[in-house]
Amino acid sequence: MRLEQPNCWSEHGALQTVLVCSPSVQSIPSLQVAENVQWNAPVQQDVAMENHHSLISVLKQEGVQVIDYALYLDLVTRQLNEQLINRFFVRDLACVFGNTILPGIAGTFMRRAEYDHVHKLLGNWFPETFTKDVTEGVKALEYGDVLILNANAVFINIGMRTSLESVEQMMGHIFQAGFTEIGLISLPRRADTLHLDMNCNVAAEDVVIAKSYMYYLPVQVVNKEGIKGYDMTEKFLHRHGFDIYWLDKYETIPDINFLNINPDTLLISKQAHKQMLKSHPKLKNKRFIEIDVSELEKAGGGIRCMTLPLVRK
Ligand SMILES: NC(=[NH2+])NCCC[C@H](N)C(=O)O
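Above: the input record for the complex with arginine. Below: its predicted structure, written as tokens.
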């Protein structure tokens, strides 16, 4: 496998390499089981697999190198990994900050195994840029809670899966990677607001889409020296060059959890309200590619959660 060095300074730069994982070999047979594993609905494995194939084939068509990490696990690890029902939500496991990859720490025990599996591979692939040592003492930091706004600023949610103490421990490494400002917000701790990327997302170089309640929440602004002050969400994002498209009505996963393939192209779910997204003046000329990932979305995450960008140009 040809592997370029990790590089990622935004959410919208042209995606060159992305990490994914296919869904597990398990179906989730009933609503009762689904609810107990914190999913929204039963899932049929073969349909989930079809969804996954549409995802990776569209990415490949768009010229993106797609790496399914599970193919690189040793046999014994792979046999366990295949049983992990959340394994395809790779976004949470690690994050490329500039040219550094930082490991995530599962905020829920059920996801620990897959974090370990991926970290071992990343350590082999990127010995100079990836180390697990940085996670010493860190308890909960899932990267669905992180948006790279631009080459200066990072936005992080303190929520159900990411603790303030953990972010405080990791912040130094984010500054060291080259970023100068981190905005911290704390969103409601509920299933529909689980991660930051289920509440807002970068939709273009200069547009963030956000659930309208975020308007009422403050952001703590931190730089290398410490806490710099506070901004309301809108002002914080404005300062970093973004207009905000506030949504009053939305379907959380499809409408918010999309992926930027490049500055002109958004990859969205067939379930998304495309006309609504397109109705923002700065988004109306964008190219929207729609794919059917409805079966996968029943697991409580969308296209952004299913993709971990390693290289964006
Ligand atoms: N980046 C995200 N929003 N990931 C969603 C992960 C959902 C998954 N069911 C979990 O509980 O972990």
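Notes for the reader.
The CA atoms of residues 211 and 250 lie 8 Å apart.
The longest strand covers residues 226-232.
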